[in-house]
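=== Structure Prediction Worksheet ===
Name of assembly: unnamed complex
Input type: mixed (protein and possibly other molecules)
Chain count: two
Listed entries:
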Amino acid sequence: MELSDQPSFDAPIPGQSLTAELGGRPWQNVSQFTTVDETIDYYMERMSSEEFMLQLADILEMGVPVTSIANSIQLSSVMDGTHTVDVGMLVLPMLMEMIMMIGDSAGIKYDDGMKDPNKPKTRDSLIAKAINNYEKEISDINLSGNDKEETSEKKEVMEEPKGLMARRN
Amino acid sequence: MSRQFNSAAVAYAKMDLDGFAKLEDVKQPEKVSGLLARTSKPMKGSKELDYTNPAVRVAKQMQVIRKYRDEINGTK
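=== Predicted Assembly ===
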C-alpha cells in the first residue's frame, strides 16, 4: 500500500475510542448474527427488496466499483452490530456476486473493481520489440518451410530403387 | 476515482468457483452415522469437501448466484 504525502483528515482523533464506555458501541457487544448462514440469509432478504435494488442500480450507474459497495455494506453492518468483522469478510464475495447479479439483471455496465488502476502499463517500446521479434520469427519460419519443401522435392526426384530385385527401366 | 487496497477484491479473487465445482464432482465418501463411527475430520489436502467450513458454504451460495448471473448474461 502506498503512503500518500497528503495529510488524512478522516483518521480518528487520538483517544476517540475512549469517549464511550466499553460495550457502549454496537460492535463491542454480541452480534445479532453469529454464523455465516444467518448472515447470508439476512443479506439475501435485505438485497432482494425493490428499494435496495433501485438504489444499488443508481450507485452502479454512477460508476462506483462493486468492491467498494460490498465493503461499505459489510462495514456498516459490522458497525451496527449485525455481524462480526470475520463473518463480514467471509460473506464479502457472496455480496459482490449478488451486487453483480443485480447489475446484470438491470443491464448496467458496472465496474467490478477487480482491475488495479495503479498497475504499471506495458511500455510501448516493449510492445515494439515484441512485434519486431515476432516478425523476424515469422520470416524465418517461412524461409525454413520453403527450404524443407525444396529438399523433399529433390529427394523425390533423386531417389531410385537400389535393391537387387529392383525394377530397372 | 482513486482506489485504496480493498479486501473485497482479494476475497473475491481467492474464491475459486471452478476449482470448487471440480471438487464437488469428485465422489464424496459416504458418511457413517453409527455410534461407533469414526469422527475424524477430512485431512488437509484431501479432496473431501467439508460443508461445515464457512468458506465452503459461502462458495456454494456464490455458485448458485453465479449460475443465475450466467443465465442472465447468456454465457453458459
